[in-house]
Amino acid sequence: MLIDALRKANIEALKNRDKDRRAIYSVVINRYDLLAKEKAVNDGDLASIIAKVNKELDEEKEGYVKTNNAEGIRSIEVQKLALTPFLPKTLSEEEIKAEIMKLEDKSVKNVMLHFKTNFQGRVDMGKVNQILKTL
């Protein structure tokens, strides 16, 4: 499972005293563990958590760029790089369009449910909604 690989990477970061990698792995693992207490989780749930954390890192980096904080920017870049191997391949616009076209019912509710059920963590739901509006 993906969580096992993440936990192993966390231990390696601890052994190597890599505080940036350790910090981001810990955040993801903690969010996963909290979600696991609420419901049965799978790799799709973990992929969603990783994607959300990655997006939050982008927002945090913007703040560091505005304040010209080079150390903060470097730290965020290391953390994003650490998450890269765990990010699932996301669907391209063409793949999203093709998947929407396969559906009989192209209502917003049905399309969003389809993508959430079948492509959790592998697609930006905002992007799906945006593409759906253009069809």
Question: What's the topology here?
Answer:
Elements lengths: L1 H14 L3 H20 L4 H24 L3 H14 L9 H10 L5 H11 L6 H10 L1
Strand/helix succession: HHHHHHH
Distance N to C terminus? 37 Å
The number of distinct helices, counting runs of at least 4 residues, comes to 7
Low-confidence stretches: none
CATH topology of the largest domain: Hypothetical Protein Yqey, Chain: A, domain1
User: C-alpha Rg, in Å?
Assistant: 17 Å
| Count of beta strands | 0
Give a verbal description of the structure.
By secondary structure, the chain is mostly helical. 76% of the residues lie in helices and 0% in strands. The radius of gyration is 17 Å and the shape is globular. It starts with a helix and ends with a helix.
Describe the structure in brief.
This protein is mainly α and 135 residues long. The chain folds into two domains: 2-86, Hypothetical Protein Yqey, Chain: A, domain1 (Orthogonal Bundle), CATH 1.10.1510; 93-134.
